[in-house]
Amino acid sequence: DAGVIQSPRHEVTEMGQEVTLRCKPISGHNSLFWYRQTMMRGLELLIYFNNNVPIDDSGMPEDRFSAKMPNASFSTLKIQPSEPRDSAVYFCASSLAGVLDEQYFGPGTRLTVT
Amino acid sequence: GENVEQHPSTLSVQEGDSAVIKCTYSDSASNYFPWYKQELGKRPQLIIDIRSNVGEKKDQRIAVTLNKTAKHFSLHITETQPEDSAVYFCASRDMNTGFQKLVFGTGTRLLVSP
Questions:
Q1: Which residues lie below 8 Å from residue B103, measured CB to CB, with a gap of 6+?
Q2: Is A58 on the interface with B (CB under 8 A)?
Q3: What is the DSSP string of B50-79?
Q4: Which residues on B lie below 8 Å from A55 (Cβ)?
Q5: Is B14 in the A-facing interface, judged by CB distances under 8 Å?
Q6: Cis upstream peptide for A8 (omega within 30°)
Q7: CB neighbour class for A37 (10 Å; exposed up to 12, middle 13-18, buried from 19)
């Protein structure tokens, strides 16, 4: 298995631009998580889906952030408009809820907003 | 919601020494406590986990202990090696939202000197 796949791996954009991060979970997994990691705030859960349905989005910082999971094999996290304080590493993780608790993390997307 | 505190924030040991990292959690209903290791520039990866029905679990040089009464759990690494150098995160399951949400500690940077 290729594991969790994220793209792009690095993104540099200017303030005000739209940013879309993509994630493909491990095949067969039914839960998907989006995390943000910064030095100041550590590893924060932004949102998670179970069977493609958003369960908890309380970690989404503000309306500029949105996430979708149109099918079991794809999810996006969109920031519009982006701001410098959004600079962070964004991880996607997946798990097989109800069977295994381990969350498998993707390689992350390092986002820099100038 | 669940709150997890982790100490120390940094830990330096000599190769061959033992290292102990401690975490406390707030939700007495929590039943799952994983530990993740994150090497520099890499993704977090699960190294060991423990459930509330056991007090200790070992896997070679690493062990985790859980005290449900005191609501704290600890990671023990024996015979440390330079490749153990990384950031270690503890986590606790948040029982308030769908049972899949993990709340992470702020991380411990472990440095093992040869």
A1: A45, B1, B2, B3, B4, B25, B91, B92, B93, B94
A2: yes
A3: EETT-SEEEETTEEEEEETTTTEEEEEE-S
A4: 97-98, 100-101
A5: no
A6: yes
A7: buried
Q: What is the pLDDT of residues A83-92, one digit of tens each?
A: 999 999 999 9
Residues of B in contact with A100 (CB under 8 A): none
Cβ–Cβ contacts within 10 Å for residue A45, how many?
A: 23
- Is B95 at the interface with chain A, CB within 8 A? no
The first and second tokens of residue A31, run together, are 């839960």
A31 with B34: Cβ contact below 8 A = no
Contact across the interface for B106 and A106, Cβ inside 8 Å: no
Task: Give DSSP secondary structure letters for A43-61.
Answer: EEEEEEEETTEEEE-TT--
Q: DSSP assignment, residue B99?
A: T
Is the CB of residue A56 less than 8 Å away from at least one CB of chain B? yes
Contact status of B9 with chain A (Cβ, < 8 Å): no
* pLDDT per position as a tens digit, A14-40: 999 999 999 999 999 999 999 999 988
> In this predicted structure, which of A15-29, B20-34, B87-101 has the lowest mean pLDDT?
B87-101
